[in-house]
Amino acid sequence: MGVTIAIDCMGGDHGPAVTVPAALAFLRSHPDAKAILVGREESVQPLLGSALAQFGARIRLQSASEVVTMDDPPAIAMRNKKDSSMRVAINLVKEGEADAAVSAGNTGALMAISRFVLKTLPGIDRPAIASVLPSQRGHTYVLDLGANVDCSAEHLLQFGVMGAMLVAAVDHKERPSVGLLNIGEEVIKGNDVVKEAGELLRGSGLNFYGNVEGNDIFEGTVDVVVCDGFVGNVALKTSEGLAQMIGAFLKEEFKRSLLTKLLAVLTLPVLNRFKKRVDHRLYNGAPLLGLRGVVLKSHGSADKLAFENALARAAEAASNRLIERITERMATMNEVKA
Amino acid sequence: MGVTIAIDCMGGDHGPAVTVPAALAFLRSHPDAKAILVGREESVQPLLGSALAQFGARIRLQSASEVVTMDDPPAIAMRNKKDSSMRVAINLVKEGEADAAVSAGNTGALMAISRFVLKTLPGIDRPAIASVLPSQRGHTYVLDLGANVDCSAEHLLQFGVMGAMLVAAVDHKERPSVGLLNIGEEVIKGNDVVKEAGELLRGSGLNFYGNVEGNDIFEGTVDVVVCDGFVGNVALKTSEGLAQMIGAFLKEEFKRSLLTKLLAVLTLPVLNRFKKRVDHRLYNGAPLLGLRGVVLKSHGSADKLAFENALARAAEAASNRLIERITERMATMNEVKA
To answer: Domains along chain B?
Structure first.
């Protein structure tokens, strides 16, 4: 896939120390791909080694003098840092020089700048952030993950379309199933917005499964789970907290005595294989959907493997017509409505 | 603690087969407690064995001819089943014959009947369901868990008061910390209701920690996490799904070969100790807060140990002035306001 990825090398907790080696690993594993490394030359250059010679025309360095920090308010990052590595990477997508941009920087700033520079697609009111999570049957995409706090039913419908087209592009499933996150047997089933969104999704022509509950995310009941950004963010963070607690408890129990420590060594291959199945690094790279260009957000704390996975996901999305798929689908729906 | 618990013996997936043995185990482990077993005599009686003789005045059977099913709409359960075991158990609390009622039945019906029979406490608009979850530092109470889908800031404040008083009663912490569930670094921090609730909690006189995120639930950052019922329900169900997936993956990895199976046998004590720490049965029994009486909801699928834990939690809440604490606290707050 001959795609070009613009990489914000300065973003994330570790900056170029992670992003540059990840970019080189990505180029090695994707022989057709190209990378534009965006950032301060003096920070990026020393980490390249012989890469410029090795990859030739497949790699180039694009200088950007500023850096968006994790604490920069989105509006400040947008207005005052016009030569930030984040902004320059997104500009490259806008100008058609890159097919996708990837950044591990400040989520709010990335969303604000992407929206300002690239604009949203026709029919999309608000972009959303989608994340992929492991499930008992493979993996599940969940959106929105925090870009939109108060959502209308129409917004949730749009998330459904964007999520379905993402899975179509990235997982090559033509009719991915879409579920609407709701609550179950309890007193009142869902609020009015969710009820109305259910109606809209039912009439959307998507492969709409119906309501799902929180547990369905990890059961893998559907390919895409749609929810507002507040709920999605809480679900994601709660899962992270639980996974961390379980990991800590397992470690504590295996460290309890000399005998249990010995058992830990013996069972290491089993535990490692288990860990690999739930390794969040394999799921890194959250697409910002609904924009006129492919942008992916990497976790700020991503290590080399995690960041490389985000780059691979970006390449997959860009080379499989993600933007075109969303545009076409939205057009069909608006025709039906009109 | 000489409390009397009214037990809806017919509720839950397993009915008397679980509730009756659990009631007897509870009486054995709580030598001062009494139990009123509510249900169809022909279903409960055969399971009692020599219990009536053994426990004497500490146990009695209260006949109820009807059963609320899991599918009964709350309104139907309330209007058409006035002699249900659920209703009769709650009536016993209303009449002062029991200090608390526990049911593993239909959540919606339990909430509707409790609210109708017992009424809410002064200053409380809506009752809430609180659940306790394990955390890295012990455990965390989360409310609401699904009784209230659209909440105002005032409601969230009331949940904060009820949750704090619950922890004061059950865990004997006089100034439990209260956190407001919100989302983090993302574009917009929380919606307007949550922002306003933060202001109210800050001025409430409670030990308000401030905003927390999903991961803080299992990290145990605060004693009580406050959120609306939709978000709380999603967080809880998502956690259940993840825990189940992790359990399934661990099992699969240990079953992969003869060698890993042998390792599983060797590490069984470690794995069991780990499992015990996250055993959801130990956390069974969700108080319905804000009512003029103590009512606890057990998980429908509870087994004997789980249901016994719900009974123990009910006894703890009732014998530590839960209702009085909430009433007093609400009165103080309303004085300040007035």
So the answer is: 1-124+290-320 (3.40.718.10), 129-279 (3.40.718.10)
